[in-house]
Every structure is written in C-alpha cells, then in structure tokens.
Design a protein that fits this description.
By secondary structure, the protein is α/β, with parallel strands linked by helices. It has 2 domains: 3-33 and 249-284; 41-240, 3-Layer(aba) Sandwich (Rossmann fold). It contains 12 helices and 6 strands. The protein has helices at residues 3-12, 14-30, 41-51, 67-84, 100-110, 112-115, 134-142, 144-147, 183-196, 209-217, 227-237, 243-284; strands spanning 58-64, 90-95, 124-129, 174-179, 200-204, 223-226. The protein has a 6-stranded parallel beta sheet with strand order 3-2-1-4-5-6, sandwiched between helices. Strand 5 (200-204), helix 10 and strand 6 form a beta-alpha-beta unit. Helix 1 crosses helix 12.
C-alpha cells in the first residue's frame, strides 16, 4: 500500500473524523480562540434598547424552551439579565413550556452573579408553569397576581411586594420571550401588543428566526435575537464573553476541519483515479 492509499484509508475512516471533530470542539470550548465576530445591527439595536430602559425597569419574562434550545437561549437570557441588573429591575418570570421550570432553575444556577443581587418576592418571582393557551396571556395582562395565586414553589403571591409595581400590562417596561416556538409570540402580539402596546423583545432559536422577523420589521416588537451567533454578539457587546462565544469559536473550528477534509479528499481523488485507471488498463492486456 503506497502513501496515497494510506492517506485515502485514513480520510475514509469515519471514526477518526468523529474523534477529530470531538477533540476540536471540546478543545476550543475549553480554550476559546477569540475569533473576531462581527456585530449585527439587529443585535446592537437590542443592546441599545435595553441600555435605555429606565431605572427599576419592570420586566415580564417567559422561559419557553427545553434542553435542546438552551444552548442558544440560555446565553441570551444570561446576557440580558447581566445588562439589566445594574438598573435594579423587578422581574416576573414564568414559563409556558412543560420543561420550563427545570430550565429556569438551570438559568438561576448558571448565573448566580445575577440572582444573588435579587431578593425573591421583592425583586423577582417565578410563577412557574402556565398553560400555553391564549387565555393565559390575556389573563396575565389584566393582573399576574390575581391570575396566579401561588408561585412555582407553592408560596402565596398575595403578600409579595413585587406585584405592587409589576403586575398588569401597564406596569411592565418590556416583555421578553425566550422561545423555541412561534406560538407564544403570536399570542403575545395579539394579547399584549395589540391590546396594550406592551413592548415585546424576542429571543429565539435560529430555526424560527425567519418566521419571527416580519413581526419585528412591522414594528410589533422592539427587537429580536436569533440563534447562537446573536447570543455571542450580545456577550461581546457586554464585554462578558461566555458560552455562546466559545460555542461559535468551536463551530468555526469544526468547519475548518471539514474544509481541510474536503480539500484533502479532492487532492487525493485525482492520483487515486489515475492509479485505478492504470490498474484497470493493465488487467485488460
């Protein structure tokens, strides 16, 4: 077996390719390269909008995602919370996804620097899982405390100070939807924006970004972050690079490895073809 055949055998081994991809992705995730990332105008618009929120902003936040969407949406949520924490916000969390309660606890554990500055019941509350039906959104706009008698942990919401200032539609400065689905977005537009002109901010997975974009372009939302690349850009704007920046670096590294394989495969193809023709020609004589 000559050198060309050995290289071809090496490149044809899928297990080796998978191991190389694993090594590249894990290596870069643990030690990001700091590859330059351009900041999209839409991401900068979101950052500027949040930066201009008043002191003590009242925020309503739907954690509508599962573990599959967490890699894209959790970094966005963390970056957003880190940006608003300096304004001493009041945040009402809830989720319309059946896995959402787990994702909220994961969010809280991943960003202890944010939640350690917030007092439960005074500065934030977790209302837990609420059904993903349009009536939920309509009822919350009229009053969260009246609609949800007990929070995610079974405590009564009646005596929580946060609801004195952040309860009904008119109280909130912005509604943030972290979602892997367009359903809560459509409900929010009809029940919150159309009825009360509540400012909506969408943070979505990349696959539904094109479907959500028309709502932003029409002015029915103040902005949108879509996909891991937008999350990485947001982290860079905050000067707090995190898991999204590392993931984009790792993705770029994996793409480079695949391109190397494609180039090598094409370089080997021609000599292998000549060798095959020569072997076939010799056999016919």
């Amino acid at each position: 077996m000559n050198t060309i055949e050995k290289i071809n055998k090496f490149l044809s081994n899928r297990q080796i390719l998978y191991l190389l991809l694993l090594a590249v992705v894990l290596g870069i995730m643990l030690h990001p390269l700091g590859i330059p990332i351009g900041i999209a105008g839409q991401t900068r618009d979101v950052y500027n909008y949040v930066d201009k929120l008043p002191q003590n902003p009242k925020i309503l936040m739907d954690v509508h995602y599962d573990p599959a969407g967490a890699t894209e949406l959790q970094p966005m949520a963390g970056a957003f919370l880190r940006q608003v924490i300096v304004k001493n916000p009041k945040i009402v969390f809830f989720t319309t996804h059946n896995i959402g309660p787990i994702m909220f606890e994961r969010l809280r554990s991943y960003f202890p620097d944010v939640f350690s500055q917030l007092k439960y019941g005074d500065d934030y509350v977790n209302l837990g899982f609420l059904p993903l039906v349009e009536a939920t959104f309509a009822s919350m706009a009229k009053g969260c405390q009246e609609f949800v008698a007990r929070d995610a942990y079974g405590a009564s919401t009646a005596d929580m100070p946060i609801f004195k200032v952040a309860d009904k539609a008119a109280d909130f400065n912005v509604v943030v939807l972290l979602t892997t689905s367009t359903d809560p977005i459509e409900y929010a537009i009809r029940q919150w924006y159309t009825a009360y002109k509540m400012p909506l901010l969408f943070m979505v997975v990349a696959v539904i970004g094109p479907s959500v974009q028309p709502f932003v372009a029409s002015g029915q939302a103040v902005g949108m972050l879509s996909g891991q690349n937008a999350a990485a850009q947001y982290e860079l704007l905050l000067k707090r690079p995190g898991s999204a920046v590392a993931a984009v670096d790792a993705q770029s590294g994996a793409h480079v490895l695949i391109m190397i394989y494609i180039v090598l495969g094409n370089l080997i193809y021609w000599p292998m073809r000549k060798m095959s023709k020569k072997a076939g020609g010799t056999k016919t004589k």
